[in-house]
């Protein structure tokens, strides 16, 4: 176990302007399509989609309208995440009209805030006397946390303090309600989120109370007597969603034991990773080694025992939760988009404590596969659940798979995922680099320009990259005068062969590698050009023999991308196909495929149904026939209508 | 499609005395253990088991006790099925003490009957004014049907009329309530059962009204306007179990269209097969070709598209139901024991219309694998759900598998399955033979003696059989004088090689085969001895390429028995094993294994976890190692503690 001995500086999205063949398209999509679309969705203006009611709730709470609260108890968060995404977008792409619309929304939010700082439309409209009586189920602090994140991002983007003031008042009020003092609640939320939000608010404002309040929530969690259990008893064991219950599942909220004693990722996956994120934040900020070690233990369990090859987590829709080690069903799991977003958060925080290749590898895996796979190429359709195998008819007719949708949906009643993708993509800049006293770390290969601070120096770094389609990447710098610092290039876990040149001169990088990063120390000048070429090849991925759902199967990966076979390319019934892993698999850039993508091609063997008679079982094998196959990146699946899809393919 | 052109005579269990190496043990178990155990269970005397309350409910309804109704709305049926099982048992094994106890139970049942003939403890105790207001959910006619079956069986066994009179009064009363007349309900039960029971009552009493009432229920089902839907609207859309509902699932009760228009097996699997059984009964009795053709259509869909290799049906625990063609998940399906019992009923009724090998093959498959697999070798533990693959930890910790129990349970709150096994095993004699004017059909190879009527003749047939461990079977006859008739021996679908001798003289049976039966016409005498030796071999079973859950896998079968691999023999993690189907597999009778059983042995390849590092995924395959494997009959699984089990094994 490592201790907290060096902590990197986090880069804000404002410092990084992405100009990248791959990501500029996503950024544009989020800015031009997703944010306006979600604005309409929040205002219930999308035909045929489930209504959101989120803005309407604020209008009622603000007294502008009469009416009832509608939607989930945490419906406010969709507005908060949208404002946060807008904030990130405005940081790099100012847009006066969008800012005007957002200011109007913020005015509305501010009007909905109580005199005392309280802000939550559900309780304000519907149960004003029930504040803080059901933290387990009602997401009050979770909802507050999202608004705090929005306030921070919008201030960073625009310098406008209105929403920041709102959330500071909210945080100040919460700080009076919770604590160990007389009359205070010694509790925490059922759904973690405020903990990481308060860290952001602390970083921005420097106000120690916010950091301490975050630490309080983390430290109290799971202590005895158990707050959530006591609260539940006081409510006569009434659960907000299902009524009277016989027991309370504390693991579901990671409140079964104190966080430092938790050894395995359990319960609701999004709650878990949001909590781990805050734990890593706090460990980095305070140097709390026991907290970092808890993060490492939980990381190792999650990543090495409970994570899909696509970087998704959550094996069951029951409680949107982890189950047990090695239980990763392909066709009935959960792998919620929000949980993959949360993995990006957690991995990023861990990277700030230690620059370890594995943290970045997992960040990249979640980002390039599940997170962006959660959104359609049109920016208007989303997955909440990200299966690794789909048989559409079974999704429609087997109730055990009702949560698995074979095509992305317009909007959800519980629509946490779409704005979560939007805010991640629009803030992607912050995940590319970190710095410390003497080093620039490159975690992701994404083109653009960043203004970074290395020690006392300012460095503008420019990156170009063929990622994720190829690994040809180059760096140059804008420097007033030659400067001495270390450039730490991430060596991705998937990369077995690469070449590094500086100004055309080949560098033996192998001896410079430490824990997944190549450290190049020199005096850099404005003419220097680093060419870092990671050779991408098709990797045949095997799974741990305990991963039963993938036994006897292989997955294909190329660079950071996990691939899948879809019906559109390979015919129906992907399960009848098998692949010889020893064959030579080829890649090709298909410019026609969904905006252009590298596909993997080879030969598969298909079990034929054509000459099988009308029985289910027989004592001779089916006839087999060879056919070419095409695998496409997983994140692109289900953009061509409904059909079979599988990541794990039988090997022969 | 065949028409109804010949109908065989059903044999009653009373006509057949089983003396058989394999089945005598089961019969003894049911008689000596299961029936007494279930008597105690119905009286709530089993420690640590869920209470039944079934007898107590009758005591309250009879006015002998004060108290509340407890248990399911159909709890009475457990008593009925127990009496029925006792009836069958007494037919061949008179037992004065058991008969005395049963007479007491029958006295109690009779006391609980209303003046008008109504008999149902739930409605009598709890909602006397709500009779016949919720046929969809409340199983009133289903409950009546089970008591009718009990009355028939107990009368046939003992000649005692008390319960028969009770159920005739009950049926007479029902006949006044339901019908097309003024003030009558033009309806039917949500859960079919009374239809087949009324046929039994008709066969015993000759009372045409019972046959007509059965036909009425079958004919009305699914007609427009839909009775269940109208009733639901009249109840303000209240469902008995879940309260107010937005819609009613008519497919669940096979009431979506008239039965003759149903093309696919849908909905609750037990309801379906009970209904199909009655349809076949009626088709055979009335010569209704359209009804028989509907049976054939539904049979073909169920058997050729929706049946597990173990003879189980029901792919989801949601509604204990069929899903869609080829959707047969191994580790999360349902395959309820009662549904397999129902398959035996349905197949048996189809066999009486046409002696087709497939009907008997399916009967045998369900009986020898799922039905007897539903009961532990101690007779005191039962499966409700019969999975084809079990990973115990996932059953305990993945809520999507909460219904799959890795070991048999003592009793269930909803305990339909244990008494269903008991009544089937104790009435097994009736499934072995059928006769018609000139032929004795042997459907099952089970030793013992039967007194049969062939045309006008009486024939005592004696069978000895090594089934299911080997196919050595012999027949002889007790005849006053030589008699001319046809002996039709079933040629099982699994049997590829056999020999037939009569009095030592070899017979070329191939030319005598018709639709799965070998027809041997001759004048038989008391000295004749037929030796019919079906050569059992290990069959490697492949599945239809559309059966995704078994793709790339094989199952092993020996004679009628499907095999499985268990952790007890093969180590943990069966999914890491694969088998070369081309190898020579051997069989051995292991006298020590659970009372003795033929095991299948061979060599498997295991993916090792020992040298795999702490990651889930890597780009090189796991190390493999050969190990011997042992497969045991599926019906014997989970008799040696909790562990991994799988029927479908990966092939390499």
Automatic annotation (TrEMBL), chains A, B:
InterPro entries per UniProt: 6-hairpin_glycosidase_sf, Beta-AFase-like, Beta-AFase-like_GH127_C, Beta-AFase-like_GH127_cat, Beta-AFase-like_GH127_middle
Transmembrane parts of this sequence: none
Domain Non-reducing end beta-L-arabinofuranosidase-like GH127 C-terminal stretches: 538-650
Keywords annotated in UniProt: Hydrolase
Domain of life: Bacteria
GO biological process assignments: carbohydrate metabolic process
Residues annotated as domain Non-reducing end beta-L-arabinofuranosidase-like GH127 catalytic: 15-429
Pfam families referenced in this protein's UniProt entry, alphabetically: Beta-AFase-like_GH127_cat, Glyco_hydro127C, Glyco_hydro127M
A GO MF term: hydrolase activity
Domain Non-reducing end beta-L-arabinofuranosidase-like GH127 middle, residue spans: 439-536
Signal peptide range in chain numbering: none
UniProt protein name: Glycoside hydrolase family 127 protein
